[in-house]
Design goal:
The structure holds two protein chains of two kinds.
Chain A: H1 12-42, H2 48-51, H3 57-93, H4 98-113, H5 116-128, H6 136-162, H7 165-173, H8 178-209, H9 220-231, H10 234-264
Chain B: H1 2-6, H2 8-41, H3 45-59, H4 63-73, E1 88-89, E2 92-93, H5 96-123, H6 126-134, H7 139-154, H8 156-169, H9 181-191, H10 196-225
Antiparallel strand pairs in B: 1-2
Helix pairs in contact in B: 2-3, 2-5, 2-9, 3-5, 4-5, 5-7, 5-8, 6-7, 8-10, 9-10
The chains are: A mainly alpha, B mainly alpha.
């Protein structure tokens, strides 16, 4: 239902009234922005010294290399491992054997219901603290792999189920075995359907890497702290770091939409139950 | 798990705070998110765009950054919300920490509530909106009397996902000085390093119970109000 059916095509009086509403809301929004800017100015947060670190080459490099790059690396590794995890458990959940299906179901449900931060803290205490074998970087990756992998397991299952039934039937008819049907027919088809969902899951992983802040992992939120502690520029630092996240996420969302249009078409056949998706709501942008 | 059982009241208090954060910011985000959804489908195009920008911005910002804004950046501008500590609701004093955590969670979650609500509005059959218009309802009337109540029935499954995500997201408050479940688990693990697997399982089970209660109640509500088609 598009917005136009919610109200009649406006007549002259309604058009005039809407014009008044528009003007009033523009004024109100501008007032809000002006108030915010004035507050920033009043608190001295618009002064050049506070913003200077973000145009100084050394700090820009620090932000981009120690911050953004580490964040992207964490997200990248998490998604790669999560795809493997999701593939294994997604296929296991489709298995005909109950002793494979139920444990896989249990693992997937468990990691979807537990907060990522709790997993991170647990991995941190188990593997990093004391003479643990892993750095907190990898603890973030492990926690994100388990969570996103469980979400992707559902994506894989839905993707395989979304392949038209006839394809599996045809494959059985020409004498393929069950594993051949899965590997040669269903999975390649399903990957195409799932690709946009995997890319948008990367947005989720990228946003969640920020939680590494709590276990002293590297990344954008970690580089923010020394900067605002040194220059006492909390507001500019938060604004800059947030914009970096938003820009990268918008790029990823844009890629996902592009892939969706190229490979899948306008309507996604994946209807997932999105229980426990940290991003909330839609998976496919 | 001995550590958890020997200080079980602390465990319960931690989940009490988690549930408190969930309930307060859940209600607030449902209200604010619905307002945003109405703005997004409403006739004033300036407000459409403003709400769309809000949603795009907050959906793509990590929750932790919003917490940093509210807890670290806003006090610099003179907003520390200490005044809420003066209020007393039924014998409970609201702490500024609790208020700020709810503010951050609400700002974030309402963007997702708005998107879920909008998909619900799209699921309302065309004829219902037309019927509303046919008996002369204004936009505000058809929205509040027809579209939103109908949308609310269709929107329960996606809204449940949003609320479950919110329940899990309350854990982020741990990084900002609230002794909710995740922070308490960290404390427990710190003090009893030999029992960390048991402690983790105890807290994981707590969260699973919270999540299952939410999805069970949503299932019951859905069964009750579902549209028979």
């Amino acid at each position: 239902m598009s917005a136009s059916v919610l109200f009649d095509a406006p007549g002259p009086r309604t058009i005039a009234r809407h014009r008044v509403y528009s003007v009033v809301s523009v004024v109100a929004l501008l007032a809000l922005v002006a108030l915010a800017l004035w507050k920033l100015y009043d608190a001295g947060q618009l002064e050049y010294e506070l913003w200077e670190p973000f145009v100084t080459p050394d700090y820009v490099e620090y932000l981009l290399v120690d911050g953004l790059l580490e964040t992207l690396k964490m997200a990248f590794f998490s998604i790669i491992f999560a795809v493997v995890f999701g593939l294994v458990f997604g296929v296991a959940k489709l298995s005909d054997r109950a002793w494979v299906r139920w444990p896989a179901w249990l693992v997937v449900e468990f990691f979807r219901a537990v907060p990522v931060l709790l997993l991170m803290v647990f991995a941190f205490f188990l593997l990093a603290i004391g003479n643990g074998p892993l750095s907190s970087f990898w603890c973030v990756v492990i926690a994100l792999t388990l969570y996103n992998g469980s979400v992707l397991a559902e994506v894989f299952r839905a993707g395989v189920n979304a392949v038209p039934r006839g394809q599996a039937e045809a494959a059985y008819a020409i004498g393929m075995r069950k594993s051949q049907v899965m590997n040669a027919v269903l999975l390649p088809q399903a990957v195409k359907i799932m690709l946009p969902a995997i890319i948008s899951q990367m947005v989720v992983a990228l946003k969640d890497t920020s939680l590494g802040y709590y276990i002293l992992a590297p990344g954008l939120t970690a580089v923010a702290k020394p900067i605002y502690l040194e220059f006492n520029n909390q507001v500019p630092a938060a604004i800059v770091i947030t914009s970096l996240y938003v820009v990268v996420n918008l790029i990823l969302t844009w890629i996902a939409t592009l892939v969706q249009k190229r490979l899948v078409g306008e309507k996604s056949p994946l209807e997932l139950s999105r229980v426990g998706n940290l991003q909330g709501g839609d998976n496919t942008a | 798990m001995d550590a958890v059982f020997s200080s079980f009241d602390e465990y319960l208090a931690a989940f009490g705070l988690t549930i408190g954060l969930f309930v307060v910011s859940g209600i607030a985000s449902l209200v604010w998110g619905t307002i945003l959804a109405v703005l997004r489908v409403g006739p004033v195009s300036v407000l459409n765009k403003a709400a769309a920008v809000y949603v795009a911005l907050f959906r793509n910002t990590p929750l932790l950054m919003i917490f940093i804004f509210v807890f670290i950046a806003m006090p610099v501008l003179g907003y520390n919300f200490k005044f809420v500590e003066g209020f007393e609701i039924a014998g409970w004093n609201v702490s500024a920490f609790f208020f700020r955590a709810c503010l951050a969670l609400t700002l974030y979650t309402s963007a997702f509530v708005c998107e879920a609500m909008r998909s619900g509005v799209n699921a309302v059959p065309l004829g219902q909106a037309e019927a509303g218009r046919a008996i002369g309802f204004t936009f505000a009337q058809s929205m509040s009397l027809v579209i939103l109540p109908q949308a609310a029935r269709a929107v329960i499954p996606p809204m449940t996902s949003v609320l479950i995500a919110l329940a899990k997201n309350t854990s982020v408050a741990a990084a900002f000085g609230l002794a909710e479940a995740t922070a308490t688990m960290r404390g427990f693990t710190n003090d009893n390093a030999d029992q960390r697997i048991g402690i983790f399982l105890a807290f994981a089970i707590g969260y699973i119970v919270v999540v299952e209660v939410i999805s069970l109640s949503s299932y019951l509500v859905e069964r009750k109000v579902k549209v028979a088609r």
